[in-house]
């Protein structure tokens, strides 16, 4: 998962990467699901991804 986050930051995030990541992990307020399961239950950054795993990032942050 750590490698995926680095790849996403480098290759997909075009502006304001600080809204997605803080340090080596996602910011508080970004929900990460791996195969519909909260990544906190599977080891967060240490989660090992397999070929057909589905990873979803959901922002719970919003403006007021």
TrEMBL record:
Single GO biological process annotation from the record: tRNA wobble uridine modification
Cited SUPFAM superfamilies: MoaD/ThiS
Gene3D superfamilies xrefs: 3.10.20.30
Cross-link type Glycyl lysine isopeptide (Gly-Lys) (interchain with K-? in acceptor proteins), residue numbers: 64
Pathway involvement of the protein, from the record: tRNA modification; 5-methoxycarbonylmethyl-2-thiouridine-tRNA biosynthesis
Source domain of life: Eukaryota
Family listed: Belongs to the URM1 family.
PANTHER family: RURM1 PROTEIN (PTHR14986)
Protein name (record): Ubiquitin-related modifier 1 homolog
Organism from which the protein derives: Linum tenue
